[in-house]
Amino acid sequence: MKVKTLIVGLGNPGAKYAHTRHNIGFGVLDALCRSDFKLERKFNAEICTTYNGKGSGQARMTNNIVALLKPQTFMNLSGEAVKAFADYYKISPQNIWIIYDDVDIPFGEIRVREGGSSAGHRGVSSIIAHLGTQDCLRFRVGIKNEFFEKIETEDFVLQKFTKEEEGKLPEIIDLCKNEVAEILETGERAPKTLKIE
Fold it and tell me: Does the keyword NAD apply (predicted)?
């Protein structure tokens, strides 16, 4: 298998962390994986692959062999699985995309850009440290709300979404999923800000 693009969704494994703000990257990958990808488990990660966009759910994702990877280490060790997969399949950092939560961006907003620092996100820090570069495409999914300033960041990211936020999550996940599909189709990687209505 020759993988052209590796898309990494960040989160923490296990039922305890399911549906927490820190696991929004897993949520987007789960939505992508339901679109005719094949699931495997190796490199201490869950991996989904599709071949040249075959299958109705991936009709727009042509000319790419895409792998989706959910590290099954904890967040601050995410780089281990990403590095192992990237080395094995000889994927350059420029072809690694990362989807993750961002406490500096308001809930309902997604920012897409290449490179930059981790801004304190431990999963991204781990990936940068293991790859030795910041040159990955980022999908930063905003999770900040009115409660963010009132509690410690570490506690906030491990909380479940509010009922109101849960109602909007499918729209946010679809927005991110569709942007991933669009970039796979067009190759256009210019910085972009997306918002739900």
Answer: no
